[in-house]
Amino acid sequence: MLALLFLSSLATASTDALRLPRTDRPIQVDGRLDDPGWADATELTTPDFTRYIPTAGGAHGSSTHVRVLQDEKHLYIGIEVTGGAPPVARIAPREDINNDDQIGVYLDPFHDGRGGYIFYFNAHGIQQDARFAFGNWYGAWNTVVYAEGDLRDDGYTLEIAIPYRSLRYPQVDRAGDPQTWGLIVTRKIPDEGIKLAWPQLQPSHPRLFAQAAPLHDVKPPTQGAGIELMPVLAANHAMARPEPDAPLDWTGDDLPWSDSVRPGLDANVAITPDLGLSATVNPDFSQVEGDVGQINLNQRFAFFFPERRPFFLNGVEAYADNPGTLYTRSVVDPVYGVKLSGRQGRVGLGLLHALDQSPNPTVHEQGSPGFTEAEVTDRVALTTFSRTRFDVVDKGYVGLTLSDKRVMQAPPMLGPADGSAAPASTEGVNDVAVVDAQIPIGEAWTVASHVSGSLTSNRDETLQGVWEEVSVRRSPPLGTGGMLVVSDRTDGYRNEAGFLTQSGVTVANLDLWHTLPLGDGQHTLKPGGAAGVVEERNGDSQANVWGSTSAVIAGNHYPYVSGELRRYRESGVELDGWQASAGYSGRITDWLTATTHAWTAEVLDFSTLAGAHTWTTESDVTLRPTTRLRLDAFYKRQWFQPEGGELAHATSVYTRVNYQLSREWGVRAVRSTTTGSEIDDQQVFSSLLLTWLKSPGTEAYLGGTWNSAPDSSGLQEQVIFAKFSKLFRL
To answer: What pLDDT is attached to residue 291?
Structure first.
């Protein structure tokens, strides 16, 4: 791995640049750009905007004017778009603007090309925000930003105020000291399937912010984010059946008041402008939307679920390493959590500590000592994670990760109400140490590697293991790209703070693709192929070859077809299998988007070690019949028939209706149903939620959830809940 440090990048810096003037005249964010202070702004005009999606190059016939400005507390962006078709803009929930005309603002406060902040706005000023770091997107991240839009028949104006305290930036020694940040401005026109940008961007660039233009004379305040306090009050009324045939009974009689009324507190403290401490006590995540149901009739490993909880998403990029050591969903129900994240000069820091009162057992197929279902039941888990990242060469890094997860007897305060809990003692421990690196080479190549060791034990057994991996990736905007990954995990390697399902395995995969521009750059065609092998220490293995062709048509339509041949060897049984699939995703009209996939395969049945045939189809459709109403439907059905066995089937249907009463008020209804031959009762989950969202942290929710089995005993559980939080910036 040390050899990677001698490689360097030859990235080309943008020659475009802007100066950020300062004004003492107030700016009122109303979308009209008529405040006297805008006369002090620097202006960027249409000839500087060029297409980069689907392919790079080509100006647009409409006009896009951008103004940049700052005062003591905010960075302002003013946008004026004229010409072309009327914009697509909806009164939608925050983040739900992917199908609208958009303006994107990309900020790299450290101007090092490694990552930054991304903000999108539709023509009403409704926002979407994300983080980008080292090639990874973190779309669930949120912060406070102010924006308003003003629509016209031939365009729109947009006024944006980004508080400096919503960002992290290099430490300011003295008030008024200028800094240079990186800036990218984009414009999305969904009716034409294109994106424009300043400066010129290349699609698929592995280091997005390396293309940013310098924004000079940025003068942020010295204190950074200061102190943020967010008190939270949540309450619920729960009813459930104590027995399948018994009537619904309120569960509160047997529970402490804290299970029905749950006060909590989130706090953020800026130690410096680029380093912050976050803490949460007794958090409640009842407003977080549930996961879409997953089904797999030939399931070998546990399901992976994305993180949605706000506390764990704050500063998420500081906790990411190459092997994915931290899977925050492994912390199920935290009593408290503490996080430190940010950077000091060329060193990035991430530290997390949490107490989980309802830990899940291991997802590893061979189990882990100290983390079996019996060993975590009625116990708590402490998770401690640290990540230190050192910036090296040009936009690369070397990182050190340390992780400790331990299962313990519940302390008396979390034990039974009669105080009979045993004194706290450690039942299981999993420690992991990782050294990883990512080194860019030129404009398209990236080399990444890691070495990880683990120690796992309970009172009777100890396991040790090592995971080594190296990958090389080429990601050009057009032409030939590819990725080679070679990985090896020994039998004893475990990672209980992450999502690791298998050890004792060597994996090698090679992917190649070639992107061709078609139709003067309005379309692309991407044929590709891959080959891989998985060799397990016990003699089992899988090998496959795969081919596919995908396309981008008019920037809005993405069809594909693929096929695969696979050979299985499992417990002495050998089987030749195959798979064929086809699919489509795209924006069919401005009110209809759809994704659909279908595949059929001959596979190994892991329960009987015989051949089996499977068919799967799934579709995800979104309708926007009005500017305020959104309808979503997700459908998945799977059939599975082992040789000589009966046909099994399962169906999952997920529907959601969202009506936005205003920018702040919305109502959402969800219904999820799972049925199948292997499921004893039809399972139905329903929820109704009224939402008020002033800004992230200042929000309120009132809703209910219902779980039922209509085919047998009916409603099984009912929960009515309310939650309110208020963000104070001190």
So the answer is: 52
Do β-strands 665-676 and 136-138 pair in parallel, antiparallel, or remain unpaired? unpaired
Rounded CA gap, 341 and 309, in Å? 17
| SS3 category, 320 | coil
Q: What is the DSSP string of 145-204?
A: -EEEEEEETTEEEEEEEEEGGGS--PPPSSTT--EEEEEEEEEEETTTTEEEEES---TT
Q: Helix or strand or coil: residue 236? A: strand
Give the pair of three-digit tokens for residue 178: 């200028």
Q: What is the pLDDT of residue 12?
A: 34
The pLDDT of residue 1: 42
Strands 347-356 and 334-344: antiparallel
Quick check: 18 and 213 in contact, CB under 8 A? Answer: yes
Nearest C-alpha neighbor of 495 from the set 557, 431, 418 = 431
Stretches where the chain sits below pLDDT 50 are 1-15, 417, 421-422
Dihedral angle sign, alpha carbons of residues 677, 680, 681, 685? negative
- Is the Cα torsion angle 702, 356, 275, 398 positive or negative in sign? negative
Contact (Cβ atoms closer than 8 angstroms) between residue 524 and residue 517: yes
Task: Kindly tell me the burial class for residue 595, based on how many C-beta atoms sit within 10 Å of its own C-beta (0-12, 13-18, 19 or more).
Answer: middle
Measured CA distances, 524 to 203, 223, 464, 517, 531 (Å): 12, 48, 48, 5, 24
CA dist 421 and 373 (Å) reads: 19
User: H-helix or E-strand containing 374?
Assistant: helix 373-376
d(CA 181, CA 117): 11
Task: Please check whether residue 190 is in contact with residue 181, taking contact to mean a CB–CB distance below 8 angstroms.
Answer: no
450: helix, strand or coil: strand
Q: Report yes or no: 265 and 255 within 8 Å, Cβ to Cβ.
A: no
Strand order in the sheet with 74-82: 42-44, 63-70, 74-82, 155-163, 146-152
Distance spanning both ends of the chain, measured CA to CA: 45
**Residue 279 structure tokens:** 């803490």
Q: Where are the beta strands (DSSP E) in 643-697?
A: 648-660, 665-676, 683-695
Grouping H, G, I as helix, E, B as strand and the rest as coil, residue 591 is: coil
Tokens representing residue 217 in the block: 């004379």
Instruction: Give the pLDDT confidence score for residue 514 in this predicted structure.
Output: 97
pLDDT of amino acid 116: 93
CB 34 within 8 A of CB 456: no
Q: What are the pLDDT digits (tens) for 285-313? A: 765 555 555 656 666 666 677 777 878 87
What token pair was written down for 245? 């045939």
Inter-residue contact 509 to 542 (CB < 8 Å): no
At residue 458, φ and ψ (nearest 5 deg) are: -125, -160
Structure tokens at 314: 């704050």
The pTM for the full model equals 0.88
Phi and psi, residue 223, nearest 5°:
-90, -10
SS (H, E, C) 90-127: CCCCCCCCCCCCEEEEEEECCCCCCEEEEEEECCCCCE
Q: By three-state DSSP, how is residue 305 classified? A: coil
Residue 152 vs residues 88, 89, 627: alpha-carbon distances, Å:
11, 11, 16
Q: What is the pLDDT of residue 138?
A: 85
394: amino acid identity, one letter: D
